[in-house]
Amino acid sequence: VILTTMVVFWVISLGASIYLSRWSMKPVIAAYEKQKNFVENASHELRTPLAILQNRLELLFQRPMATIIDESENVSQSLAEVRNMRILTSNLLNLAKRDDGIKPVYTQVTRHYFEKIFENYAMLAENAGKTFSSELQLDGNVKLDEALIKQLLTILFDNAMKYTDDDGQINIRVEKVSQNLILTTSDNGPGISDDDKKKIFDRFYRVDKARTRQTGGFGLGLSLAQQIVQSCNGKIEVHDNKPKGSQFIVKMKAV
Ligand code: ADP
Asked: What are the EC numbers (predicted)?
């Protein structure tokens, strides 16, 4: 009887410890999977520009007597790929930095901070033949991390520029409603399907991979935007813009 009891007890405690260790390992396994996915995706994104670069450089080697002018296409395409890789690696570094949990540094800003940012956006839009408008409902000061909010707005503005056609219309509204700061960017681009709305904040997710390679996207902008918003204890949502396009709404406490 004693032996049977001991065996039963041993089997139960072994089962319990296996179950508990699996359960406690779950977050570790999930984090490992996430990290593995990230590295795989990043390597995958680097593979294409590297292959193109290798091809172009090999072509240059085959014609050692040619001048740079003769080979301007190869040289400029190689440079374009190097630029792509620089953007990708700086995005990856930014994400990794944010993963370490950078704390926002809050300072008081006035409407002048937004006006300066919008001036630049208006110029960029005009140069691209698009229209930029802004609404600023902000009396007095608001506390925010200047660099982070500028980076966030720039990601949303850049996307609106990238995904609208020649008649692109982009609007950014900033308002302080009771204790909240609300930033809304709207555009008249193609919009985002309900299915894609759930995925666009995932790292490396792009709705139309062929088109985004042309527009130079890596699918990292919105995941960085979400990390910035979360680090400021805020929320970011995507909606349909009326009558057409997308709308991103960021809500955060106006501390
Ligand atoms: P990307 O570098 O590809 O732009 P993002 O993470 O910024 O990466 O965006 C993810 C995807 O969401 C984009 O590839 C694009 O398909 C879609 N998207 C983002 N912003 C817009 C927008 N304003 N209008 C339409 N689609 C958008």
From this structure: 2.7.13.3
Q: Give the C-alpha separation, 163 to 101, whole Å.
A: 30
How far apart are the CA of 209 and the centre of ligand 1, in A?
Answer: 10
Inform me whether the pLDDT recorded for 212 exceeds 60: no
In the structure, which protein residues have their CB atom closer than 6 angstroms to any atom of ligand 1? 159-160, 162-163, 187, 189-190, 192, 200, 205-208, 212, 217-223, 246
45: nearest Cα among 225, 163, 201, 205: 205
Task: Report which DSSP code applies to 72.
Answer: H
The pair phi, psi for residue 198, each rounded to 5°, is -75, -20
pTM assigned to the model: 0.78
How close is the Cα of 126 to the center of ligand 1, in Å?
21
Ligand 1 center to residue 86 CA distance, Å? 19
What ipTM was assigned to the predicted interfaces of this complex?
Answer: 0.98
